[in-house]
Structure formats: C-alpha cells, structure tokens
Amino acid sequence: MDDPLIYDFQTKSGNFYVYDVCTNQTYPVTKLDINIIKNYRKMNLDKLINYFNSYSKNQIEKLYQKISAWVKKFNMFFPQWDENNVGKIPSKQRYFRGLANLNQIILETTQKCNLRCRYCAYSNNYNFFRNHSLKKMTWEIAKRSIDYFIGIVNSPWRTSTLPANIGFYGGEPLLEFELIKRCVTYCKQQDCNVDITHNMTTNGTLISEEMIYFLLENEIDILISLDGPQSEHDKHRIYPSGQGSYQKVDSNLELIWNIDKTYYEKHVHFHAVFTPLTDLAKVIKYFSQNIPKISKKISKLVPMGPPEGRFFKSISTNSKVECENQLKILFQKYEKLLIEGNNNNHLFRVLDKMLGQTISNFRDRNYQIPQYKIFNAATCIPGHRRIFVDADGLFHTCEKITSSFPIGDYQNGIRYEEVKKHFANFIKIINDFDNCLECIAVHNCNICMANISRDGIFKKPDCESVRDRFKQLLVKYYSIIEENPNAFAKL
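User: That's the sequence. What structure does it adopt?
Assistant: Structure tokens below.
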C-alpha cells in the first residue's frame, strides 16, 4: 500500500493533526508533515526536496528522518494487514473454546405486550421484524436453555471471571412473572462455577409490590423504558386504547422508591428512545432535574428503529430536520460544559450519559493494535457475547437481530455451521461494498450483524456515514482538548 491509512484534519483553531489507523492514535503535525507522510512511499527524499521546494532542504530532511523512524520503529501509517485480517470465523474447536467465556443468555419470556408503542419494532412497523403475538416461553425451553448456559459457564476452557447473567426480555417479560420466578429459583439450585446475576427489560407498567420484593430479594437489575416527562413519554408509549403509560410507570417508580431506596439507586436503570417528534430539551431537563429519583443509571439516548419503519416514514421532513437541530444544540451545550470543566452538575452527567457515549468510547479506545487483529466491522462472533433465546426456543446472536438468522436452539445448542454461514454472509456484504482494511474508521465502526439484518438478508452497510461521523468526532474531540486539556480526565 503506497497510500498511508490516515486522516488529516484541522481543529476549530486551525491546528493540524493526523489520525493514524495503525496505532489508533492522533498526532499534532504541520502541513509539511502531512505532505511527507502522504508521499513517503511515492517519492524518495530527493524527490520530496524538489517537489516541496518552498521549504528548506534541512527542514524536509529532519521531518523525513522523523517520519521514517515512526514508520520503521512503530509501524505507523502503513498497515501490514492482508486478507487474513478480515472476516474470519474461528475454527470449530476454537469457536467452542471461545464460547466458554459467554457471559449472558437472554430469555424471551413472551412475545405478548400490554403496550402498543408507536415506534416499537414489533408494532407492525416493519416487514422484517415479528409482530406482537400470544407466544410465551415454556418451562422446558427456559430450563434447558439455562442448563445449556450453565454447562458453558462451567467449561474448563473458561477464563472469564465475570458473573454469568441471565436476562428476561419480551414483549413485556413481567406478563410471565411466574416463569421468571421459577427460572431465578432454579438457578439458585444449580452448581455454577461463578455467580449468576439477573436483569430484565420492562416497560414498568405491571410492577407490583409482590414483584418489587422479589426483585430486591434477588438483586435483579431492571431497565425501565422511560422517554422523559409525560408530554414526551405519552407521545409514543401508549396502551392499545391510545392512553399514555407515563402515570402508571411513575407511580410504580414511586412504589419502588418508597419500599427500598437503596435497591432503587443501585438496580433501577433507565432507557429513553426518541423520535423526530420528541422535544429533546424537555427530555434532558426532566432527567437532569430528577436525579437521584430517576436514578443515576441512565443509558444512551437511543433513536427509534430503522428508517424503513412505517411510523418513521409518516413523520414530516421538517420534524426530522428539527430533531437534528435539537441534537446539535444539546451537543453544543455538552461541549461548552466540557470546555469550561463544569462537569460536577446533574445537567452535565445526563448529557454525558445520554449523548457522550461516542466520545467516551473514543477516549477509552485501545492503543495497542496487533498486526494479527481480525476486523469484522463492529460485529461480534455470534454466540460469543450473548445468546438470545426466543419464545420458540431458537437461539439468536442477540435480541436486536431479526429472526432470520438463528444460530441454534434449546434442544441442540449452538450449531457451528449456522454461525459460520451467517457470519460469512455478513462479511461478504461488507466486502462487496467496502474494504475494512482501507477504512479510517475500522477501529471505530458501529456496523454489526444486528443493525443491517433484514428479512433473510443483510442490507448494504452505510460505511460512508460511519466515516463521516468519525471525522466529525475527531475534529470535535481535539478542538475541545485544545481549549481544556483536562476536559475528559474525570469522565
């Protein structure tokens, strides 16, 4: 490769930087540095001196020696990757050894839900997701799935020391509370080499006093869908009758708080979805003014599902543009607080949690990139991170992928050939449209099997948008650091 795998940019103040994909690091440079790096393998030193004759010979020689040292000693700018570094699924033996470090299995206790949220993937919005149904998981499927998971966790090949987690999902999982209780009780009776923890994603409307005491007795984490104040939550999170669900969720949160504040603060988490119809300023204000009552455990602010959805298509272009403008304004507030070092207040904490995840991920990135690293866009090896068991007992890569790509079932466990087939199809669609080994965002990609899965196919990935967002991130990140070098130190 004669062209370096870099991205050069200027911050708002006009300073030059180069992001090097090989080391996943960014370096302050001059314009001449950038020119020499870009032509390092195309011109020898003499040609560089002649070509960039507006600079002195001595200046070019010094920079050339510096850049040569970076390339030769630190393997910068010119990756040594080849086709062996992309799209590889481990051999069958290595795959099942890696499976030993699986830390989570999620049980879809039911496909039934008592709400009909307008943006829900299962509310007849999409042709490639299932619709709400009356299906529920049997005890046999739940028990055998748990047995399979514990068998994996107890494998002699396991090196992970993390607890094993069994989650409950829906539909609305609390519609099958008796099954959940039976699962939790059964897990306590099993001989497992690590602790077993539990969590649950719920709309929060069915929580009763009995359930609360069970949840706190077993220290079960709950993720409650709450889209902000009543005016915003009730726009989308509604009962089949059209009535909003906010008041019921709010009263149930009050019940948990009054029964056990410690449990609430430690185990109650919140998840907010927004659409182009959401007033984002009201959402941020609501969460920032209700800490700790709304808990410090707020996750990233999540946009509604894929744009192919019927509900999304029904929203006006003006509303979509206004939503983008709202996001920009909120991020500008976040940037301002970072630059001022004003990070010890509720508003900043909420903005950081809900909008700052991309920046936090970049700050915490891995700087040690081995030459043998395998690049699979942002996807995991199916089954290695988690297993989602649907109500019929089919195994899937996660709860977000469409149902067209099962990787096993409760009777037979993981089927390696299915994993290999789906993974190969994903890599093929990536390589048909782009090349991970020549992408500046290869370490900062968010394209995975789940977010491009459709009805039996993987759609064309939007790699260009990923690169554009990464370029914008670099400019924002280093512009902030120039104004406040300690901006990210305490995040």
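The radius of gyration is 25 Å.
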